[in-house]
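Dig into this one:

. . .
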Amino acid sequence: METVGRVPSEPGHAPPAPPPVAYEGVWRFTAPALDSSVPQARRAVRDLLAHQRVPVDEELMASLLLIVSELVTNAVRHAALLSPEIAVEVSLGRDWVRVAVEDNHPYRPVALMADQGRTGGRGLLLVTAVTEEAGGVYDVEHTASGGKVVWAALPLPGAATSPPPPR
């Protein structure tokens, strides 16, 4: 007897994963650690999501672009001396989108407390707040080469699962 279609799961076994959706995948690009890379990264992420037909609404798109802007700006401002090039990675799953910025600077970024007398210094506070408000996750991981990856993953509208854990 040949089984066609879905095989029922046995006790103790997970059901088969649903088939991938057309927009799933990982894209990575590099840019010089220059101020001009901030709008370029934002534009590249926006264009990728549109090209892949990822189901993002205006609010989610604005959140993702803010996160990209802040993470790339931090890498440009604080890591350029040790990292003349940065990498931006966009990972798309069925129910989530993850944006990450990698540089070669070893120190973990720290969100500063808001200081009314300073302009700037609030980027990671913004990233944390926007990520939490969207129901996503944010973290920093060290790379094998001694640098770091700062990332945020946000659920897509109507997501059935939570964003992915760190890699």
Remarks:
- Strands lie at 25-32, 85-92, 96-103, 137-142, 148-155.
- Residues 58-79 form the longest helix (22 residues).
